Amino acid sequence: MNKVSGVRVGLVFILACLLTNLAAPSAFAASRDLRLTPSEIHIRETFQGAPMSITATVPPQSLCIIEIKGESYKQELLRKGRRGGLWMNVGEVEVHAAPSMYLMLTNESGDILKKDLGANFGYAALKKIVRFSGKLPKAGADVLFEQFLQLKESEGLYGIFPGAIKVNETNTEGAKIEGNINLPSNIAPGTYQVVLSVVKDEKLLEQEITEFTVEMKGLPKLLSSLAFEHALLYGLLAVIIAIVTGFLMGFVFGGKGAH
Amino acid sequence: MSWSIYLPIAGASVNIFLLLGLGGAVGFLSGLFGVGGGFLMTPLLIMAGIPPLVAAASDSNQIVAASTSATYAHYRMGNVDFKMGALLLIGGVLGGGLGVQLIKVLRSMGNADFVIKITYVVMLGVVGSYMFMESLQSLRKASMAARKVETSKPSLYVRTVQSLPFQMKFPKSGVTLSIFLPIILGIFVGILAAIMGVGGGFIMVPVMVYMLRMPMHVVVGTSLFQILFTCVNVTVLQAVENHTVDMILAIILLLGSTVGAQFGARLSRRLKGDQLKIILASVVLLVMVQMLVGLILAPSVMLAYKGGH
């Protein structure tokens, strides 16, 4: 009986070890302390974007990649082209599966995309998932993808920042890293994913994911909910405020003696 | 201290003084010339980082305030012909409906944007050039005698207008016209305004001056009266259909524009009609040149969000 029980315990132990290994690809389990400061972003009246600090402990001498990804939704865009020698909108395109925001930070100042592993990160990885439909250019979707990146980068919603992760301290537990990024003021409310990937010797050692939320508070929240949930009331209110202000201004200036 | 404010519908943070300045400048032009200023404000807001759809809708909202303020100022000066304004408004609403249908047909044919841009440049060019040349000639002549000779010999157009049925007196404008003329011209402007996506003030003003022969000061007040109603309609529709009216953006703009409109209306009273026309013609031509340059030079970003002008 004791013998059988001992075998069972042994099997359970082996199974547990296997499961642990599956969850964390390396014995050098690190980055268990992936932290975001702040972990919630509140959009209030004077919101101008928000600085975010991302910290973790990783194995020494490893390549760290932090990706910040927004939710994906369908985006409708107009493509510009030349007609009769003039530049104008020549067709509508829909973009599918593209995140609302994509920022990537690394601790290497070089271009990691040159390496084979680079295909799994950054714009190369996005290119694999983003799809286009509608009036595509004759040059193909590759050109459109480049133009899409150009648009998003111009808005500060997409960006690659090599060398933006600093190694603060290295000890026996590993290297403490910190990445700092300024989230743009046009960041949309929603849930954002932060993915830390640790790479060593061209192998993905570990990946850890955490999330943060962006939420409207105060007057922005009140007006936004009014605009979307009570649209007619919101529209009438906007018109009434405009007419009353217009009259008040006319009265104030008229009272001062307009001829 | 930061002077930026977050605009919840636009989803962007913009400097308050920039918005007040933009509102003030465009409101000043609105009060001066009787135009809504949408053809100026919307592109400026887009340049300030506001999404095109939100820029166009919120601009309509602020024009409601600016045109209320300026219409009130002009009303106190006796410059609003309500009877003429109402007839033009009826035509404008009918024309707007027709224009929207026309745009749908053009979009299905795939050439809507080409037609819109060309219409814009041609209309701005023709209206601006004609007004500029005509006003320049009038300023050069500057003799009342010459004008009297002109009025004593009515042109073919005037004779045709006078022969139309249902003649009505418009005492404020000092003209007698068939009621069909302002309605038909209102339809024409409404179609163009719908195609071009603007309130149509800068087309309506020359139409009232040259086709309806109204005095310039009454034209400005009456045009503003009509724009007020058009923009009330557009604001409510945009809020309900597209959720694109940013009230905070509109309020900041209208604080600037209502003050600017008052100064514009005062200056308009001090300037002569021909002087007003020549300045408006210059602004219209400048916008046309800016638009033409935008059409000729390759854009820096080849994609844009759907919506806006």
Can you give a write-up of this model?
- The complex is a heterodimer of chains A (259) and B (309).
- By secondary structure, chain A is α+β, with helices and mostly antiparallel strands.
- Chain A contains five helices and 13 strands.
- Chain A has helices at 2-23, 122-129, 141-154, 218-229, 231-255; strands at residues 35-37, 40-43, 50-58, 63-69, 75-83, 86-96, 102-106, 131-134, 158-161, 165-171, 174-183, 190-200, 203-216.
- In chain A, strands 2-13-12-4-7-9 form a six-stranded mixed β-sheet.
- Chain B has 309 residues and is mainly α.
- Chain B has helices spanning 16-33, 38-47, 52-76, 82-109, 112-141, 144-152, 156-163, 180-196, 201-211, 216-241, 247-270, 273-296; strands spanning 4-7, 12-15, 167-170, 175-178, 303-305.
- In chain B, 51% of the residues are buried.
- Classes of the chains: A alpha+beta (259), B mainly alpha (309).
- At the A-B interface, strand 5, strand 6, helix 3, helix 4 and helix 5 of A face strand 1, helix 3, helix 5, helix 10 and helix 11 of B.
- Strand 5 (75-83) of chain A pairs antiparallel with strand 5 (303-305) of chain B.
